[in-house]
Write a structure and sequence with these properties.
Its EC number is 3.5.4.42. This is N-isopropylammelide isopropyl amidohydrolase. Keywords: Hydrolase, Metal-binding. InterPro entries: Amidohydro_3 (IPR013108), Metal-dep_hydrolase_composite (IPR011059), Metal_Hydrolase (IPR032466), Metallo-hydrolase_Enzymes (IPR052349). This protein is α/β, with parallel strands linked by helices. It has two domains: 88 residues, Urease, subunit C, domain 1 (Roll), CATH 2.30.40.10; 292 residues, TIM Barrel (Alpha-Beta Barrel), CATH 3.20.20.140. Helices cover 37% and strands 22% of the residues. Strands 1, 2, 3, 4, 5, 14, 15 and 16 form an eight-stranded mixed beta sheet that branches. Helix 4 links the parallel strand 8 and strand 9. It is globular, with a radius of gyration of 21 Å. The protein binds zinc ion. Zinc ion binds next to loops.
């Protein structure tokens, strides 16, 4: 059963709120989907409907920049993970698993359970890749476009047309149709490592993007110099087409595998091409050097990626926990580092999705989450479990 906020439009006063960037307790008044005012506690008109937050820390809601709604097994009995040590082996294993999972519970129902779960954690916007291949055709696209309508009151969703099993001519046609139907971005997958056709794959991805006036988000697992070569090709195409700010590459493990000179050269091209990099703090794969990329002017953002699916049995969907995982993997420790980990799952992901920033100032969108933590550093480092979530100024039921 999906949590949905009630639709009353009266003001709501959040009393006794802590804020990450200032001392003291505050009363934050929410109304009409935005923050109306922020005043020292107990100075606001008592007549306003009030909710006492008892000193909880109020933060921007989380934004998952990379998730797969159509892959999760959530809602099914536990499924032992099927081994597969290469991307190609994992794709083959998933195709078998996918059919049996769909018979046990329709994908749309599982995706809905996942949205319900992550919204409860405080994720109120997400970018989901949708599988398109010759076996399932556009069925996942149709189901998830319908689901997006049903949950619009709860979360903002962007979709990427994702050629998980390769970008064949037939898949290209289906991706074209998916973009006409309302899927937002063009996806891609290891142009060299999976499709063995770097030029052809990127030609198709960027032709579709140009035709539909859409952005691009490519999965890139290819390692080392092969991966950075592909990143530079993507960045040059983005620059040539004036697509800066509308192109992302997800994973880009290669950035964590090359020497400092190659990293600097690649980062410089990514900056010129306005290409953002998504990392989820991968388990046993190389992680892109987040701070070096940001210093080079490259936007880095984050998401959960796989949540209990054929790719990984792990993943709770909690982006605050994900910020901690990324910080742990990246060797983050200072307060500034922990704040950066938080930015990856909030400000940076919002910017990549083109959403208005949540600033904890009057006029800011009131998509918010409150946690029991002394400050932002503790919130990131300790993953407090209890959450109070506010969507467009109203508490989730
Ligand atoms: Zn992914």
């Amino acid at each position: 059963m999906l949590k949905t906020p009630d639709d009353r439009t009266t003001l709501l006063r959040l009393a006794n709120v802590c804020l990450a960037d200032r001392e003291g307790l505050f009363d934050v008044v929410l109304g009409a989907g935005v923050i109306g005012s922020i005043e020292p506690a107990s100075t606001v008109n008592e007549a306003t409907e009030a909710l006492d937050l008892e000193g909880r820390l109020l933060l921007p809601a989380f934004v998952d920049g990379h998730i797969h709604l159509d892959k999760t097994f959530l809602g099914l009995p536990w499924r032992p993970h099927v081994e597969g040590h290469t991307v190609a082996a994992r794709i083959a294993a998933e195709r078998k698993e996918r059919a049996t999972a769909a018979r046990e519970m329709p994908m749309k129902v599982r995706a809905c359970k996942l949205i319900d779960r992550i919204a409860g954690y405080g994720t109120l916007a997400l970018r989901s890749h949708i599988d398109i291949d010759e076996e399932i055709g556009l069925s996942h696209v149709h189901d998830l476009l319908a689901l997006r309508e049903e949950v619009a009151g709860l979360v903002d969703i962007q979709f990427v047309a994702f050629p998980q099993s390769g970008l064949t001519a037939k898949v290209r046609e289906m991706m074209d149709e998916a973009l006409s139907l309302g899927v937002d971005l063009v996806g891609g997958l290891d142009p060299a490592g999976i499709d063995n056709d770097l030029e052809g794959h990127l030609d198709t991805v960027f032709e579709l993007a140009e035709k539909h006036g859409r952005g691009v988000d490519i999965h890139l697992h290819d390692p080392g110099l092969l991966g950075t070569f592909e990143l530079k090709q993507i960045a040059r195409r983005s620059a040539a087409l004036g697509m800066q700010g509308h192109v992302a590459v997800s994973h880009a493990y290669a950035l964590g595998m090359v020497d400092a000179g190659e990293l600097a050269a690649t980062a410089s091209e990514l900056q010129r091409g306005g290409v953002s990099i998504m990392t989820n703090g991968p388990g046993n794969a190389a992680i892109p050097p987040i701070k070096a990329l940001i210093e080079a002017g490259v936007r880095v953002f984050s998401g959960c990626d796989n949540i209990r699916d054929a790719w990984s049995p792990f993943g709770t969907g909690d982006l605050l926990e994900r910020a901690a995982v990324i910080g742990y993997r990246a060797g983050f420790a200072s307060d500034a580092d922990l704040a950066l980990a938080f930015d990856l799952v909030t400000t940076h992901s919002r910017a990549v999705m083109g959403l208005a920033p949540v600033t904890l100032e009057p006029g800011s969108p009131a998509d918010l989450v409150a946690v029991k933590a002394e400050n932002l550093s503790e919130a990131v480092a300790s993953t407090p479990r209890e959450r109070m979530v506010f969507r467009k100024g109203r508490p989730l039921a």
